[in-house]
Automatic annotation (TrEMBL):
GO molecular function: ABC-type quaternary ammonium compound transporting activity; ATP binding; ATP hydrolysis activity
EC class: translocase
Record GO cellular component, one term: ATP-binding cassette (ABC) transporter complex
SMART domains for this protein: AAA (SM00382)
EC id: 7.6.2.9
Classification lineage: Bacteria, Bacillati, Actinomycetota, Actinomycetes, Pseudonocardiales
Protein name: ABC-type quaternary amine transporter
Keyword terms, alphabetized: ATP-binding, Nucleotide-binding, Transport
PANTHER family: SPERMIDINE/PUTRESCINE IMPORT ATP-BINDING PROTEIN POTA (PTHR42781), SPERMIDINE_PUTRESCINE IMPORT ATP-BINDING PROTEIN POTA (PTHR42781:SF4)
Pfam families xrefs: ABC_tran, TOBE_2
């Protein structure tokens, strides 16, 4: 039998825990609660979650800027932190480069000198001539060659972001840590730069751990997303897994938008769950099989994304499951689609309909929840 060699992950974290004590009142809070994951070499890995969920603290523990109370961190198979063994390798001795939210660009230096800083003072110092060649080549790669002699304060936000990235890449890190690097930019530039950042990452093949609270950014850029909430991991998966098969109500609601309806299991036949809810019986073909048997009466939430809710005319005759009579309460024309809000009895549902659908508030319609895309989430 052949031995399969499993490649070493670039980063492996296990059982990470970090408490903070508030100076004002001595209150202790758990910022990172039993966090563990592995990051494949060369991948783009995103920590996603709302403000205060512990993403930056996790990133700072990886960088060595924060010491965890428990847990282990290894990079390329080498332990850089172990609470048990009292090992905490200094940031400068870890194979990382970090771009902070503020970019950390020195205003009193020119663009070239900012980029050259790690080659002059870092762990990979080289001769002046070589440094010059490498810096100019890198500035060229990120489209800043012509700005080398400008003061860094004369750069736009997007250019400063590219400079920070160039400087980090010049350190030749094994792992690049990025903390919300696009958050100071306007929406249009963010969208442009996220594509650019992803293509730099792929070009350089550098393992990247990216922190953001922006679900659009996470879905667009990542190979793997970790969704965090209150210091804990809610779900780890590829963007499509997270979006199409959220593991919890929190993930369903935080990533994209979701219609959520409380209910209980009525019937379960292996492939399908029928849930009893306030609007009637809903068939769900998507669910994770829990460890314990699914018995009738078990509480759940039915989740369906607006793009899987079709708006039909009131007269549509159908024997399809998951079709309910509803009343339109609001519609919004968004150019590429119309967002329709309907009420089924007291329950409000959102649907994405054709932009030219003729539906007005007060109209009676039918709505169809696609069973294949209707998810049962365990409560
Ligand atoms: N130095 C600190 N002292 C006390 N509490 C802290 C400290 N740093 C973080 N915290 C707390 O730890 C929790 C997690 O913070 P963290 O900055 O990791 O969250 P985050 O998800 O990155 O949020 P944001 O997106 O707002 O940066 C928060 O409740 C925060 O108030």
């Amino acid at each position: 039998m052949q031995n399969t060699v499993v490649p070493e992950p670039a980063v492996a974290i296990s059982g990470l825990e970090k408490h903070f004590t508030r100076k004002q009142n001595g209150e202790v809070s758990l910022a990172v609660d039993n966090v563990g994951f592995t990051v494949a070499r060369g991948s783009f890995f995103t920590l996603l979650g709302p403000s205060g969920c512990g993403k930056t603290t996790t990133l700072r523990c990886l960088a060595g800027l924060e010491s965890a109370d428990r847990g282990e961190i290894a990079m390329n198979g080498r332990s850089v932190f172990s609470a048990g063994a009292r090992r905490d390798v200094a940031p400068e001795d870890r194979p990382i480069a970090m771009v902070p939210q503020s970019y950390g660009i020195w205003p009193h230096m020119k663009v070239f000198d900012n980029a050259a800083f790690p080659l002059r003072h870092g762990r990979t110092t080289c001769s002046r001539g070589e440094a010059r060649t490498r810096v100019l080549a890198m500035l060229d790669q990120v489209g800043l060659a012509e700005y080398a002699d400008r003061w860094s304060t004369q750069l736009s936000g997007g250019q400063q972001q590219r400079l920070a990235l160039a400087r980090a890449l010049l350190c030749e890190p094994e792992v690049l840590l990025l903390d919300e690097p696009l958050s100071n930019l306007d929406a249009k530039l963010r969208a442009q730069l996220r594509a650019e950042l992803r293509s730099f990452q792929q070009k350089f093949g550098v393992t990247t751990i990216y922190v953001t609270h922006d679900q659009g950014e996470a879905l667009a850029m990542s190979d793997t997303i970790v969704v965090m909430n209150r210091g804990r991991i809610e779900q780890i998966g590829a963007p499509a897994e997270i979006y199409d098969s959220p593991a919890s109500r929190f993930v369903a609601d935080f990533v994209g938008s979701a219609n959520l309806v409380a209910g209980v299991v009525d019937r379960h036949d292996g492939d399908v769950i029928e849930a009893k809810t306030a609007i009637g019986t809903v068939r769900c073909a998507r669910f994770t099989t829990p460890a314990e048997p699914v018995s009738p009466g078990r509480e759940l939430h039915v989740c369906v994304r607006p793009e899987h809710v079709r708006v039909l005319t009131a007269a549509t005759a159908t024997t399809e499951p998951n079709v309910f009579t509803a009343r339109v309460t609001a519609t919004e024309y968004l150019g590429d689609r119309r967002e329709v809000t309907v009420a089924v009895d007291d329950l409000v549902l959102r649907a994405h309909a054709d932009a030219h659908l003729d539906a007005r508030p007060g109209d009676e319609v039918r709505v169809a929840l696609d069973p294949e895309w209707t998810i049962a989430l365990w409560t």
